[in-house]
Design brief:
There is one protein chain. The protein is mainly α and 224 residues long. Helix content is 39%, strand content 0%. The longest helix is centred in the C-terminal third of the chain and has 15 residues.
Length: 224
């Protein structure tokens, strides 16, 4: 079943302006019942402005009244007069004009932190062209001096889920997980421990005499 474009904002309005049960609201906006209860308790969507589904033509007042009278009834969305948006096929993502000037920063960030991603993958994620990616990679872009790598999620160009999915696909195709570099197993030579032996001192210089070299000569024992 189709759901409102702004489920949480619609939930805020239904909680504040109707007597529908949490289960009925959760079923209509495709949220968990506990999440609807958290919104009602002010724990989620704090300060969010409610979106009136009646004014936008998503619900009729008669439908709300019917379900308020019957707790087991399920809200049925009104048939809109506007055509439903068609799902986009494969191709580059559309980037709002206000974000297009940030695309070079996002490309530089991806090239730096996720080199396993191919140009077509970056193009689909960021909504840019392959020549632009090539000039940034080769640092030949006309504005390269002012390009600063920034996360496309932080710039609002793509969601974190989209980035994680694209990185996972790129790593699977490249056959790498970019594990942290392992420290080499070759152990560094251990420094020699300082010697505890006292340095040997040279013996004082000995004066040699005839007696010390040839031995003493005892004239009394020397018989001719």
């Amino acid at each position: 079943m189709a759901k409102p474009l702004m489920p949480k904002a619609t939930t805020v309005w239904l909680v504040e302006n109707t007597g529908l049960s949490f289960e009925q609201i959760a079923e209509f906006v495709s949220l968990h019942e506990l999440e609807v209860q958290a919104i009602a308790d002010g724990e989620v969507a704090i300060g969010m402005q409610g979106a009136d589904p009646v004014a936008s033509g998503v619900l009729s007042q008669e439908e709300i009244d019917r379900c308020q009278a019957d707790p087991n009834a399920v809200l049925v969305m009104s048939k809109g007069t506007l055509p439903e948006p068609k799902a986009r096929g494969k191709g580059a993502r559309y980037t709002p004009v206000s974000k297009r000037q940030d695309r070079p920063d996002a490309i530089a960030w991806i090239l730096k932190h996720h080199p396993e991603m191919t140009d077509p993958q970056i193009s689909r994620l960021i909504g840019t062209t392959k020549p632009t990616i090539k000039t940034i990679r080769e640092r030949s872009h006309w504005n390269i001096s002012k390009i600063k790598p920034q996360s496309p999620v932080g710039l609002g160009i793509c969601s974190e889920d989209d980035l994680e999915k694209m990185v996972a696909v790129a790593r699977a195709k490249a056959g790498t997980t970019h594990a942290p570099k392992q420290i080499s197993s070759v152990a560094a030579p251990k420094p020699e421990a300082p010697s505890t032996e006292a340095p040997s001192t040279p013996d004082p210089e000995t004066k040699h005499t005839v007696e010390s070299v040839f031995g003493s000569h005892d004239s009394s024992t020397d018989k001719s």
